[in-house]
Amino acid sequence: MRNHFTLIVGSFLIAGSSFSGQAQSLVSGFMAGKGHGSVVVSGTTERYDNVYLAPNKIDGVPIFQEVRVNSLNLYATYGLSDKIDAVLSLPYIQSKGYTDEAVIRDLNSAPATAGQGFTNVRQGLQDITALLKFKSYSREIGSSIFDLLGVVSVSTPVSNYQTNTGYGYIIAIGNQATKYTASGLAHLKTASGVFATGQLGYSLRTGEVPNALIGEAKIGYAGPKTYLEGFASFQESNGGTDISELDFNGFFPSTRVNFLRVGGSVYRPLAKGVGVVLGASTYVAGRNIGKSTGYSVGVSYNF
After folding, report:
1. What span, in angstroms and rounded, lies between the C-alpha atoms of 127 and 158?
2. Homologous superfamily assigned to 6-302
3. Which residues contact 283 (CB under 8 A, 6 or more apart)?
4. In what order do the strands lie in the sheet with 289-290?
5. Where are the domains of the chain?
6. According to the model, what pLDDT value does residue 217 have?
7. Cis upstream peptide for 224 (omega within 30°)
8. What secondary structure does DSSP assign to the chain, as a single string?
9. What is the rounded distance in angstroms from the CA atom of residue 229 to the CA atom of residue 243?
10. For the whole model, what pTM was predicted?
11. Which tens digit of pLDDT belongs to each residue from 38-50?
12. Residue 34 dihedral angles phi and psi, to the nearest 5°
């Protein structure tokens, strides 16, 4: 049976600065159906003025008093067959650090940064992500359906955004790494519309960016007129350095970024083929990451 609920998971990419991350995965347990899919344009805004270091959360952000990240994301999914979906996502991101003008003037005149044009705003296209999702197993359990799915994806930068050594790169919009990820999903949907999804995978990253174990759990309701979901996602880096270490050299892509983030989203149709998506998420634990809260709104076209 075809549905458009796959659009929900792709419309809330929050991918921001070095101290920020991704709200949730681009994958759901629902399939688009052969020849069908969705296109979603969404905007997200998030902010943080506290950061999770190791081992404690601290007030304030190095150099900046507060960081705000705004992003515009294009997401599309298409059913190559009833058992294979293709997904594409591309965000444009602006990351801005707020501090006293005197701090910026001093940094621009300091020997280490003189002539480099120290900035408190970084923006541009970030990383394009392409993935394939496969339904490998399906079984009826009473009036419910249990599915097992596999996902492979690659994400790579599409612009020459800057990531370098120095605390000013806390607001970099990405880490200039290519990421190769494989994961498995288990998805249970009931006749009443209630569903639960669990996902676990591993991500290989190029350069000095640590590889990571990633996962997500969702529970929600997919009805004729409403889609609701709550989620909890995590990342556990394999290696990396801590910002609080004495020998940290200021290269943020090499840090050990762990997090636990929770949130939710809701979808409602507006007219035939068109709907609106709202969402919110926040970090509740982490390591070398900003304690950000984000809000999103998106418009979808389903075909």
Report:
1. 6
2. monomeric porin ompg (2.40.160.40)
3. 21, 52, 259, 260, 261, 289, 290, 291, 292, 293
4. 57-59, 50-52, 289-290
5. 6-302
6. 97
7. no
8. ---STHHHHHS-----STT---SS-S--S----TT-EEEEEEEEEEEESEEE-SS-EEES-SS-SEEEEEEEEEEEEEESSSSEEEEEEEEEEEEEEE--HHHHHHHHHSTTTTTS---SEEEEE-EEEEEEEEEEEEEEETTEEEEEEEEEEEEEE-S-----BSGGGGG-S-----EEEEEEEEEEE-TTSEEEEEEEEEEEESTTPPEEEEEEEEEEEE-SS-EEEEEEEEEEEES-B-TTSTT--SBGGGB--EEEEEEEEEEEEEETTEEEEEEEEEEEEEESEE--EEEEEEEEEE-
9. 34
10. 0.88
11. 999 999 999 999 9
12. -55, 125
Q: Rounded to the nearest 10 degrees, how much is the dihedral formed by the CA atoms of 250, 91, 258, 221?
A: 170
Residue 142: exposed, middle, or buried by beta-carbon count in 10 A (0-12, 13-18, 19+)? exposed
239 is written with which tokens? Answer: 């290696």
Residue given tokens 């929770």 in the structure block: 262
Residues 6 or more apart in contact with residue 264 via CB below 8 angstroms: 228, 229, 230, 231, 279, 280, 281
Percent over 90 (pLDDT), the chain: 70
pLDDT band (50, 70, 90) for residue 108: low
Token digits for 119?
């900035």
* 242 vs 47: CA distance, rounded Å: 22
